[in-house]
Amino acid sequence: MFKFKPDMYKKDIYEINYEKLQDLGIKYLFFDLDNTIITYKENMPNDKIMTLFFRLEEMGFKLFIFSNSYEKRLLPFKEKLNVEIYFSSMKPFKKNYKKVLNKYKKEECAFIGDQIMTDVIGAKRNNLFVIFVDKLDEYEPIRTKFCRFFEGFVLRNFNKKKILEKGKYYD
After folding, report:
1. What is the DSSP letter of 92?
2. What span, in angstroms and rounded, lies between the C-alpha atoms of 161 and 57?
3. Distances from the Cα of 47 to the Cαs of 44, 50, 51, in angstroms?
4. Is the dihedral of CA 167, 156, 124, 76 positive or negative?
5. What distance in Å separates the CA atoms of residue 59 and residue 12, rounded to the nearest whole number?
6. Euclidean distance between the first and final Cα of the chain, in Å?
7. Is 126 left (phi over 0), alpha (psi -120 to 50) or beta?
C-alpha cells in the first residue's frame, strides 16, 4: 500500500512547486484532465490554465494530457494549450504508460492527477514520480464515483497510518 503513496500532494496544479520539479530533473509533465485541469462540466481551457501552461512551457517543460477521456474531449485542449494528448489511456493499466516510457526517460517524467485508483496507482505501478491533487469539483460521472468509492478505503488507510492526510499538503 505504501508504494502507492504520491511523491507530492498539493491542493491543485497551481500550488505545485515546478521549480522543485526542475531541480529533480523532471522535463515532462503529464496531466490528467478531468477534475485535475478542469471540472467535468468544462469543455475548454480557461485563461488561468492557459497562463499556467504558457509559463510551464517558458520554463522548459514539455506538457501532455494523459486521460481516460475520449479524443473528442481532449482535442480543444491540444489545440489551445499546444500539448500532446494521450486519450482513452485506460489508467491504471500499464499499456499506455509503456507508450510514454518508450519515448521518454521515466526519471524525467511526472504524472499529475486527482485520483488514487487511476492516476496515482497507474503511474506508481510504472515507478514514476506522481503528484496527487485534490479534485476540483464534487460533480463526477458514475464510473468515477465507482473508483472514488474504493479510493475512500485507500485514503482512510493512508490517513490512519499518517501516510497521506487529506488537506495536509507536502512536497
Report:
1. T
2. 38
3. 10, 5, 6
4. negative
5. 19
6. 19
7. alpha
In this prediction the pTM is 0.84
Contact criterion met (CB below 8 Å) for 16 and 103: no
Query: What are residue 109's phi and psi, to 5 degrees?
Result: -110, 140
More confident position, 142 or 34: 34
Domain ranges of the chain: 2-160
DSSP string across 15-69: SS-HHHHHHTT--EEEE--BTTTB-TT--S--HHHHHHHHHHHHTT-EEEEE-SS
What cell was used for 42?
468544462
User: CB neighbours (10 Å) of residue 169?
Assistant: 17
User: How does pLDDT run across 96-138, given as a tens digit for each residue?
Assistant: 788 878 899 999 999 999 978 777 888 898 889 999 999 886 6
> Which CATH superfamily does the domain covering 2-160 fall into?
HAD superfamily/HAD-like (3.40.50.1000)
Which amino acid type is present at position 73? R
Separation between Cα atoms, residue 33 and residue 75, nearest integer Å: 12
Which residue, chain included where needed, has cell 494523459?
Answer: 66
